[in-house]
Specification:
Layout lengths: L1 E4 L4 H9 L3 E4 L6 H11 L2 E4 L2 H7 L5 E3 L5 H12 L19 E4 L1 H4 L5 H6 L3 E4 L5 E2 L4 H13 L3
Parallel strand pairs: 1-2, 1-3, 3-4
Antiparallel strand pairs: 5-6, 6-7
Helix pairs in contact: 1-4, 4-7
């Protein structure tokens, strides 16, 4: 399942990527017509909180109008509407920043690209093929898993 999130849903976009879903991001510089053409051309689901955009887009692409202001609740809306089974662990396949694929890299390849402390204490690293960022399972991993667990809950 692939998504296009409008400017109101940047945080949701990153979290969908953490779950392994492809989610493009339409910045506020994009006009509604451009966003609709993009979603239609790529055959991806448009996610928006903008009622006017959702109304205009419905004839051209699959559109999901989200109602919550909270990204965790927005994710639950997406899971329910798209019949997706939420994950409780982050994916290591998609860059949360640019949506490009991640590849496992050796520790030697990560040397000089992460903080010395991280290099010393971590063994596994992933690199984004698009933006070149390096990722690892650090102390933030526990917080990410807790947030994903809340997003996966049905309450």
């Amino acid at each position: 399942m692939r998504f296009l999130a409008d400017a109101m849903l940047h945080r949701l976009c990153k979290w969908l990527r953490l779950l392994g879903y492809s989610c493009e991001y339409a910045s506020s510089e994009k006009k509604d017509d451009e966003i609709i053409r993009w979603a239609s051309r790529e055959k991806i689901v448009l996610l928006t909180r903008d009622e006017e955009l959702a109304q205009r887009a419905r004839d051209y692409c699959k559109t999901l109008l989200l109602h919550s202001n909270d990204f965790q609740e927005q994710a639950k809306e997406v899971f329910r509407a798209m019949h997706l089974k939420p994950r409780k662990t982050p994916s290591r396949t998609t860059c949360p920043e640019c949506n490009s694929p991640l590849s496992k890299v050796t520790k030697a390849e990560a040397k000089g690209r992460v903080w010395p402390y991280v290099f010393k204490h971590r063994r596994d690293f992933w690199e984004c093929r698009g933006c070149g960022r390096i990722y690892w399972k650090g102390s933030h991993w526990t917080g990410i898993k807790k947030t994903l667990g809340r997003m996966a809950s049905t309450n």
